[in-house]
UniProtKB/TrEMBL annotation:
Database matches in InterPro entries: ARM-like (IPR011989), ARM-type_fold (IPR016024)
Segments of this protein annotated with the region Disordered: 34-73
The protein's name: HEAT repeat domain-containing protein
One Pfam family, short name: HEAT_2
Amino acid sequence: MKRGGAAIAAVAVLGIGLGIFALRHEPAPSLPVAGLAPPSRTERAKETAPAAGPLIGTKSAPPASPEQRAAARQSIEEAVTTYEQAAVKTIAAFLQDPDPDIRLAARDGLIQLGEQDAIPILRQAATRMSDAAEATACREAADYLELPSWSDTPEGQEALARIRARHGK
C-alpha cells in the first residue's frame, strides 16, 4: 500500500514537473475563435519580433501638454467619425506618438473605426512598443478587429433576412 502511494506521488510530481517545463518552453496556444485556426509558431514569432526603427514609448521625449493631448484626441475623434477607410492612416500616425495617452486614444480610435486596414498597422506598432503591456494591447486590438462581424454569421444573416422581409426590402 505504501509502495503504491509512493509510486502515485512520484508520477504526480513528474507530471507537474513536465507541465511546468512545457509552460516555460512552449507558448500557450491561442484558442480558436469562430472556426479560425490558432496561429502557428511562425505567426506568433512574427507578431513578437522587434521591427526595424526606434522603439515607441521610450522615455526620451517629454509627455504631451494637456493642450496637445486634447488636440490629438480631437483629431482622432474627427477621423473616427468620418467612418472612412482613409481615416486609418490619420489615426495610425498617433500610434507613434511619444505620449502613452495619445497612443491609447489612437488604438481605441482604430478599434472604433473598425477597419480591417488597421490590423497590420496595430501588429506592426506592437513590435515597436517598449512597454510589453502596450504591445499586448495593440495585438489584442488587432485580434479583435479580425473577429467576424455578427452580421456575417449565419445567425446574423437570418436575423437580417427576417428584418428585410418584415420591412419589404
